[in-house]
Structures are given as C-alpha cells and as structure tokens.
Amino acid sequence: MCSRLFKMIHNKCRKGFYPHTDIQRFKVEDNKISWNVEYPEYKPVKHTSPNILNKPWADPVLEDSCFKPKWNALDGSVDRRSYMGEYVISEDGYPLNPVGRTGIVGRGILGRWGPNHAADPIVTRWKRNDKDMLEKDETTNKPILQFVAILRKDCKEWAIPGGMVDPGEKISATLKREFMEEAMNLLENDFAKRKEMEANMNLFFTNGTDIFKGYVDDPRNTDNAWIETVAQNFHDGDNNTFGQLPLTAGDDACNVRWMDADSKLSLYASHSLFIQKTVHIHDAHW
Asked: Over the stretch 112-161, which tens digit does the pLDDT of each residue have?
C-alpha cells in the first residue's frame, strides 16, 4: 500500500455511533488510525446491516462460498478498483480501508465490500442582485459563488446532491442522474417529462471540471467498506441553464436550494472540502 495514504486522517467515520444504530465505534486516536501501527487492544464491533442482505445491488456476505470477488480489479460490471491505489486484503479475506481504522468492522450499510463508488455533481452559478449584477462580499471584494445543496433525509445535513454509481454506469451518467433525481425530482415526473428534462440537461452535463477523485470521510465507512467519489463542477456562468430552473427536492432529499459558498459552511461528509476547491477554481469569495 502506498505510504502517502497514511498521511490522511478520517474523522467523521470514527466517532460516535454508526449511522442508524446504537453501535458505538471503538475508540481510535489519530496516532492509531494507520494499519502500520500496532493496536492489540483494538476490538471493534462487527456490523453488517440486515437491511442490505440479499439485495440485488449489494454484495453477499464474504462467508458465501459462491462469492469470489476480484479485489483491486474490474469484477464483471462492478468496479472494485480504488482511486487510492491497491488496498490490502487481510489474512481472513477482508479488504482493509486504505486510510486506516474506523472503529467498526463489517460492511455497515454499504452495498459493496471495499470501495463503494459515488459521484457528486457540484452545480454552481454567480449570486446576482436585483439588477442582475454580480454580488461581491464586502470583506474579500470577490464575487459570491452559489451551489445547489440538498437537505438529506437520512441525517438532516446539507450536502451536494449525489449518489452511488450503478454497475457498468459511466460517471457522467451518474452525475446527471443523481442531480436530476435529488434536485429536480425527476422520478416524480411522467415518462415524457423525464425525457424532456434529460434532453435539456445532456449538454450541460457533458463537460464538467474535475474537483476531486478519491476517498471520502463518510460516516458510513467501516474498516472493510468505504466511500470513494468523483466530484465535478458544472458552472452556469450566465445563469441561463440552471439559474432559471425551479429546484424541487426529490428521492433522498427533503429540501433543496441555492446556497452561498462560504468558509463557515458545515456540510455532510467531505462536501465542504469539495466546495472550497470549487471556489478556489473560480477565484470566488471564501
């Protein structure tokens, strides 16, 4: 495993209770995260949610003799490769989180052992006043960037709309699909309306700017399953594409709105970092 991975520290996935359970994570201090550090006292609870067992989109349990995953490889239509490089497989056959210990073993509520690939579309525009002029922050004198944010149903935290990549699906298709499902309520429209909406969005979601590709400090992560994502920015510079569209919360969101990018933001998982990187690219206020 590449040594640079151990310079990373995850925080949100090693504190408190595992999501939607009363299972307390085993305490892991910063200096005990790395698998290279001996930690003989480490005895985390094993948890794989019964809600994901036997689901068509999820892996079987590793004890299933018919389940023979191809680690660190393209396994049929399932991509088990990591953006972080090759991950280690333990002596008992479990993939190990490339950043280190999380205080819980098993798969939690994640569908795949090892990397679970997601995609996060960061849709942005410039904040404008009533005269259609760019608004600038009084302190930095830089224009204010706005992004589409959703309020997640599961944890009631604001986040970038996004979701998991389906087997065999291109990242570009996931980015468009997740945005339209969560921020435009695509699934509640009839077939004809869906096709019209998708046609209007196809060109906009063709050329995104890469913001981030890699491991995400997600509270759902475990020692044996973790989230990795591709975050891309789609900027509507003149407010002609998304700036005029009514946003409607759908799928996993209970609210959606344009949110000002600011250093005081507190967003789900690593999403604040993604917004900070996007702001930097546009030389906007932060």
From this structure: 999 999 999 999 999 999 888 999 999 999 999 999 999 998 889 999 99
Separation between Cα atoms, residue 95 and residue 253, nearest integer Å? 31
* Residue burial 187-196, b: 16+ Cβ < 10 Å; e: rest: eebeeeeeee
Which residue is it, tokens 């408190």? Answer: 16
Please name the residue that has the structure tokens 């950043």: 99
Long-range contacts, 68-75 (Cβ 8 Å, 24+): 69/113, 69/114, 71/95, 71/114
DSSP designation for 121:
E
Q: Which long-range contacts (CB under 8 A, 24 or more apart) does 172-178 make?
A: 172/205, 172/206, 172/208, 174/118, 174/119, 175/119, 175/120, 175/121, 175/205, 175/208, 175/230, 175/232, 175/234, 176/121, 176/201, 176/202, 176/205, 178/119, 178/120, 178/121
d(CA 84, CA 82): 5
Helix ranges (DSSP H) in the chain: 171-183, 191-202, 271-282
At 5 the pLDDT is 43
Would you tell me how many other CB atoms lie within 10 Å of the CB of residue 266?
8
| Pairing label, strands 225-236, 45-48 | unpaired
State how far the Cα of 122 lies from the Cα of 235, in Å rounded to an integer.
8
Closest Cα partner for 208 from 176, 177, 180? 176
